[in-house]
Amino acid sequence: MAFQLPELDYAYDALEPNIDAKTMEIHHSKHHNGYTTKLNGAVAGSDLEGKSIEAILANLDMSNGGVRNNGGGFYNHSLFWKVMNPQNKGTLSGALKEAIEAAFGSEKAFMEAFSNAAATQFGSGWAWLCVHKGGKVDVCSTPNQDNPLMPGVTCGGTPILGLDVWEHAYYLNYQNRRPDYINAFFNVINWNEVERRFNEAK
Ligand code: MN
């Protein structure tokens, strides 16, 4: 059973003006599709074939570049589309809000920490909010398509919010203004989905 490119829950133009339609179309139909196709090629005929992406990444041989890059790319983008939503955004609330305030002091301080992780990731990569068993949350960043599910990668735990800071994620609209893209991302976070993932993984 091969991995399949997930459909978006919304139209390519639904996140405008925060993320433009052309970027979304290329990002999903070309970049994410490419990772998906290459992941299937990388696991075909190996003992990884048929396993879940979470199981593959958690037990990853980090020297296996094909699965590391494309499995990471498949998983990371699948999460990214889900944690954004133009309509049903919700607000940071409940147990997740409490965990964020316990870790960072305030929602504003969390936003600063997350923005800083995204802004200071040199070159291509991701910023993450992760939850550990017991409910503690923290923020980190990873290069390329690595993510904290992989063995020994940055903060560990389960990523529940991720921001793609590869130039392909923002360059058409924002060019070199990565901080503006990061600020815009906060306008489209689907907090209901982030909280759902927090409660599932904590
Ligand atoms: Mn991307």
Draw up the topology in text.
Elements: H1 21-43, H2 53-58, H3 65-82, H4 94-104, H5 107-120, E1 125-131, E2 137-143, E3 158-164, H6 171-174, H7 178-185, H8 191-201
Antiparallel strand pairs: 1-2, 1-3
Helix pairs in contact: 1-3, 4-5
The structure holds manganese (II) ion.
Manganese (II) ion (MN) is lined by residues 27, 31, 77, 164, 166, 168-169.
Structure commentary:
By secondary structure, this protein is mainly alpha-helical. The chain has a single domain (19-202), classed as Iron/manganese superoxide dismutase, C-terminal domain (minor pseudopilin epsh fold, 3-Layer(bab) Sandwich). 47% of the residues lie in helices and 10% in strands. It is built from 8 helices and 3 strands, in the order αααααβββααα. The protein has helices spanning 21-43, 53-58, 65-82, 94-104, 107-120, 171-174, 178-185, 191-201; strands at 125-131, 137-143, 158-164. The protein has a 3-stranded antiparallel sheet with strand order 2-1-3. A hairpin with a 5-residue loop joins strand 1 (125-131) and strand 2. Helix 1 (21-43) packs antiparallel against helix 3 (65-82) and helix 4 packs across helix 5 (107-120). It starts with 20 loop residues before the first helix and ends with a helix. The relative contact order is 0.16. The mean pLDDT is 96. Bound molecules: manganese (II) ion (MN). Manganese (II) ion binds at residues 27, 31, 77, 164, 166, 168-169.
